[in-house]
Design brief:
396 residues, Rossmann fold, 7-stranded parallel β-sheet, 6-stranded parallel β-sheet, globular
């Protein structure tokens, strides 16, 4: 990285911490309109009219589409110098992935947000170790690696739905200040979605018809981005499809966002493909069961108390459902050789409901129905406290 850029980052960070803040709140997400920040953004847009609130993205197509729907959105890549000015004025910035990813790797933009109250909602709970939990496996002589780790650990507050997650975020992010509330995206698992919450969740007409107009049971396959192992292994997918064809079950597969652009080669009359960029949360109630390897949505699905099946991989000790609080008792463990047995048990007998309910209560020890309202209230109290401290003068 250019030494001059590093020096500018230091300067901009100092300026950001000194500069007076405006009533400006910035939300950041993935490359599509989804995840925890989407739902909190829409809630605050409706309930905090005295603030200017923007969805920020470097995806010009996404920004333009949101603007056409009347959603205030800002293209951070269009004019970086203007973006620096806007970021310096923000009182609050909210993220759901690594902030460095949200600003397209632009360290100067991130530096301009240093003076805002930064909130990290993250994008779910998993069984694998991340960020500071992986330093032994990372190249710490790489500036890209260290900057990415700093990006992940720079937030002022981290959202945590339970004491179990508190410990995870302290280990992985060095978090010492936590906000207890539910995940905003999980609200739509427990109630109907509002019209604006369906933005970013649009399905193609064939998938829409199959999911909502056909009488067959449906299951969701949610593989992670690692190709040719776990649920991404074609032999496992084929065995699942064959079982579901025999039992008149429709299969919907949504690949991980990191796998975007890699076409699915498998074809079957009962298989429907959901684009990786689609926000799946407004649709999750439509599925009778979920199958994954290590997707972070697996624990959110517990809130629906429906069968969860996992395809384990030999991908290191950090990828292990034995690391979950109940050592994996909530799920049906699937291999290529036991698909019929496990799917039959999960879909037609389901002996794990009590285990799912117990784990759900343990992981989500907060109000999941009103997560946005509670979280927004707490954040705004914290922001008011920070601004009062910022404006406090000492005269001697």
């Amino acid at each position: 990285m250019n030494p001059a850029v590093l020096a500018l980052c230091d300067d901009l960070e100092t300026l950001s911490k000194k500069k007076k803040k405006e009533r400006l709140i910035l939300f950041f997400g993935r490359d599509s309109f989804c995840d925890n920040t989407k739902y909190l953004f829409l809630h605050m847009l409706e309930h905090y009219p005295d603030y200017r609130i923007f969805w920020c993205s470097g995806n010009a197509t996404l920004v333009d589409s949101l603007k056409r729907q009347g959603i205030p959105a800002f293209n951070i890549a269009a004019d970086p110098k203007f973006t620096y000015q806007i970021f310096l004025e923000a009182t609050l910035s909210v993220f759901c992935v690594n902030p460095l990813e949200s600003v397209n790797g632009n360290m100067m933009m991130l530096a301009c947000l240093a003076g805002s109250l930064t909130i990290q909602l993250w994008h779910g709970i998993g069984v694998k170790k991340i960020d500071l939990g992986t330093t032994a496996q990372r190249d710490l002589e790489s500036l890209q690696v260290t900057k990415t780790l700093i990006g992940a650990t720079q937030a002022d507050y981290y959202l945590s739905p339970s004491a179990f997650v508190d410990d995870k975020w302290h280990e992985f992010f060095g978090a010492r200040q936590l906000i207890r509330a539910g995940y905003p995206r999980n609200e739509v698992l427990l109630r109907d979605s509002k019209p604006r919450e369906l933005l970013g969740a649009e399905l193609t007409p064939p998938v829409q018809r199959a999911l909502y107009r056909s009488p067959q049971r449906k299951i969701l396959l949610a593989p992670t981005w690692v190709e040719n192992i776990g649920l991404n292994h074609q032999a496992v997918q084929t065995a699942i499809l064959q079982f579901c064809q025999q039992h008149d079950i429709q299969v919907f597969i949504k690949k991980h966002p990191f796998a975007k652009g890699k076409p699915l080669t498998l074809k079957a009359p009962n298989l429907f493909v959901i684009d990786p960029s689609v926000d799946i949360y407004p649709h999750m109630k439509a599925f009778a069961a979920m199958v994954t390897d290590y997707s972070s949505i697996v624990f959110d699905y517990l809130l629906l108390d429906r069968p969860i099946l996992t395809v384990d991989t030999d991908n290191g000790p950090e990828f292990n459902y034995a690391n979950s609080p109940d050592q994996g008792a909530f799920r049906y463990s699937v291999t290529h050789d036991n698909v019929a047995e496990m799917f039959g048990e999960a879909l037609f007998r389901d002996s794990k409901s009590e285990a799912r309910k117990a784990l759900c209560k343990f992981i989500f020890d907060s109000d999941n129905h009103n997560a946005c309202e509670l979280l927004a209230t707490k954040i705004m109290v914290l922001n008011e406290q920070k601004q009062l401290e910022r404006h406090r003068l000492t005269i001697v």
